[in-house]
């Protein structure tokens, strides 16, 4: 699927933008399903519903205003349809090979900033969250569900940082607070050239899990929606993150899993194995 120019661009920069990959009709269906979930008309096993730290304290009204992110929608057939779209998997296979697992799913509903700048996402590397390797066989697909620009908080990337190593992450020291599990790279070069990835509805960016990226705050009155899935080759393998820089996220995920499912002892890798779903080929290792 990739032209030599596209392959070279990804190898050099760590991301690749493909225009107009997902249809308006599909995006509208995903939007309607998101609203049904927000109105609590449909219950999804294992779904994590997240709210912005600045607006979570307001009285909950069951509409889209309260919800800033849905995570782990693998048990919702309509949203999970995104992860198996043939036009996306054609590109994913270029990075993972033919055996493809959908490992992590999100629908992001970035709210208008409440004045505390909490709608920002700190600069981070996605591999910080993943206890599986090799990183070159993992890729994220991130699709804009509407026009995404600097005003409403588009992705900002540090091109080429995927060639480095996994950095230490923790919560940034932001006065307005920071959303749960929004860890950030503790030490990166603030002078590194950055690129703002502005997108139209249906555009999809594929990026490497070591690419340092984040997003600015939403300075508009509307919500900014995107849907994404992290894919990995099913030939990837799990690693033990104890004693590494990833131990802090392991502890946090285990704490959340304990509260959610009432289980005290759950291995970090098992929280991923439970959520992973085969979308193409064979489930060989993950």
Automatic annotation (TrEMBL):
Catalytic activity reported: phytanoyl-CoA + 2-oxoglutarate + O2 = 2-hydroxyphytanoyl-CoA + succinate + CO2; decanoyl-CoA + 2-oxoglutarate + O2 = 2-hydroxydecanoyl-CoA + succinate + CO2; 3-methylbutanoyl-CoA + 2-oxoglutarate + O2 = 2-hydroxy-3-methylbutanoyl-CoA + succinate + CO2; tetradecanoyl-CoA + 2-oxoglutarate + O2 = 2-hydroxytetradecanoyl-CoA + succinate + CO2
Entry's EC annotation: 1.14.11.18
GO cellular component: peroxisome
Keywords: Dioxygenase, Iron, Metal-binding, Oxidoreductase, Vitamin C
UniProt keyword Transmembrane, yes or no: no
Pfam family of the protein (one): PhyH
Family to which the UniProt record says this protein belongs: Belongs to the PhyH family.
Name listed for the protein in its UniProt record: Phytanoyl-CoA dioxygenase, peroxisomal
Organism name: Crenichthys baileyi (White River springfish)
């Amino acid at each position: 699927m990739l032209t030599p120019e596209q392959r070279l661009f990804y190898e050099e920069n760590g991301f690749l933008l493909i225009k107009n990959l997902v249809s308006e009709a599909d995006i509208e269906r995903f939007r309607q399903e998101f609203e049904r979930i927000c109105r609590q008309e449909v219950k999804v096993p294992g779904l994590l519903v997240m709210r912005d730290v600045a607006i979570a304290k307001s009285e909950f009204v069951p509409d889209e205003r309260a919800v800033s992110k849905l995570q782990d929608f693998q048990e919702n057939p309509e949203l999970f349809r995104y992860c198996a779209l043939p036009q996306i998997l054609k590109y994913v296979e270029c990075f993972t090979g033919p055996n493809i697992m959908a490992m992590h799913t999100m629908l992001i509903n970035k709210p208008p900033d409440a004045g505390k700048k909490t709608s920002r996402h700190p600069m981070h590397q996605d591999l910080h969250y993943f206890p599986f390797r090799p990183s070159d066989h993992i890729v994220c697909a991130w699709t804009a569900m509407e026009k995404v620009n600097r005003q409403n908080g588009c992705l900002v990337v540090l091109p080429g940082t995927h060639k480095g190593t996994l950095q230490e992450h923790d919560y940034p020291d932001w006065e307005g607070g920071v959303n749960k599990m929004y860890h950030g790279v503790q030490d990166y070069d603030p002078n590194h050239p950055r690129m703002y990835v502005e997108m139209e509805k249906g555009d999809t960016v594929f990026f490497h899990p070591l690419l340092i990226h984040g997003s600015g705050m939403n300075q508009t009155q509307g919500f900014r929606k995107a849907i994404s899935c992290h894919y990995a080759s099913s030939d990837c393998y799990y690693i033990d993150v104890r004693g590494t820089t990833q131990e802090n996220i392991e502890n946090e995920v285990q704490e959340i899993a304990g509260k959610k499912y009432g289980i005290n002892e759950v291995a970090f890798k098992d929280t991923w194995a439970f959520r992973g779903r085969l979308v193409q080929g064979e489930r060989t290792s993950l």
